[in-house]
Amino acid sequence: MTTQLDYAPVLERSDADGRAISGDRSRFDISSLTIDIQARGVRMDAPMERRAGGAGPTDLGMLWIEGYRVTAPTTNVGDTPYSLRAEDEGYGIYVDGVRLAGAQAQKRPRYYDLKTADGIPYEQIALLHLDSLATTVIQTCTYWGNADQCTFCGIGVSLDAGRTIVKKTPEMLAEVAVAARDLDGAVDATLTTGSTRGVDRGARYVAKCAAAVKEASGLPVEVQFEPPYNLDVIDEVGDMGIDSVGIHLETFDPEVLARVAPGKARTGIETYFAAWERAVKVFGEGQVSTYVILGMGEDPEITIAGAKRAIDIGVYPLLVPLRPVVGSLMADWPSPPSEYMEPIYRRVQTYMTLRGMDSNSAKAGCARCQACSGLKSLDAPIGAVPLTIGRGPLDLA
Ligand code: SF4
């Protein structure tokens, strides 16, 4: 169990008010802190923008901790030792009054106050996740509301709550993207979609929307879709100028996949690999990614082996902890502890390094942002992370 004592070595000095402050950034284990905050959450002692419901990061606060993007639970975090406090400039992460790290919190984006000419709030068209514009272009899914529904997903939740609209058009998204870039500093756009029964599974429409965003704003774009029935669709997506794609298997463990995502299980793991291989040919190594959700009962060794196989063909496995979405079928599941997450992160990240892949590869999208994963924090410069703080030597096997 990670405790305050794990971070004791960072405490070097106090400020004028006697408040303990952290030492040099390079002296403490920012990756372990980030991963633990992602797992245990942070209590809000200061107001902060957060997101409820939806298909992406939900019911979470969005932060930069020592410069790293981090999404972290901010509700139902009764036993977390971490709290976020406002400071003169930005925020601090504290445990029992001891400051561990500096933080910045996302402010309410200014473009949220704008509307389209026909009165649709921009906020219902696309959200800002830290510096990434994100939207679900078709907020329905052929799997939703039946036996095939992915148990971790909340795509119908925000629609039912009236927080979004069922279908966004390329024109709407282009308009919002320009505003998000100019008013709030968006640096890329992530567009996902519920799956359709069509041969393209929804890929053509989400790519059309992304192409409009890119043309209007110049932002790099990622689109996410299920493996098309006809893989030639992936070439069409590439021809539209899309930068990166996410084709999300969610777990490499076949038994877990059958339980949590029956529709995806029917598609089959080998079909994902075939789609990834085609996509890597079109978009390049590191521009194709898959979410890998940890904490759903999967076998870690099967997970790591699957991640390595994906890396071998140029696919970035974006490891994330299960974040139970209110209203989803897994709403009552716990998030996995950092003690479970961190060794898997480290083994996969080490393999990626050996294969020349890193978290800076992706031009756009979730694999570029990385706020929901602990992988990027492991990219800290060699020597910056004291490998033995509170834990003993790390298993890098
Ligand atoms: S395929 Fe699964 S995760 Fe994706 S939108 Fe449909 S139900 Fe949600």
From TrEMBL:
Record bears the keyword Transit peptide: no
Keyword line: Iron, Iron-sulfur, Metal-binding, S-adenosyl-L-methionine
Spans traversing the lipid bilayer: none
Domain Radical SAM core: 130-361
A Pfam family it matches: Radical_SAM
Keyword presence, Ligase: no
Coiled-coil ranges per UniProt: none
InterPro entries: Aldolase_TIM, Elp3/MiaA/NifB-like_rSAM, rSAM, rSAM_MSMEG0568, rSAM_sf
SUPFAM superfamilies: Radical SAM enzymes
SMART domains associated with the record: Elp3
Single GO MF descriptor: metal ion binding
UniProt name for this protein: Unannotated protein
Organism: freshwater metagenome
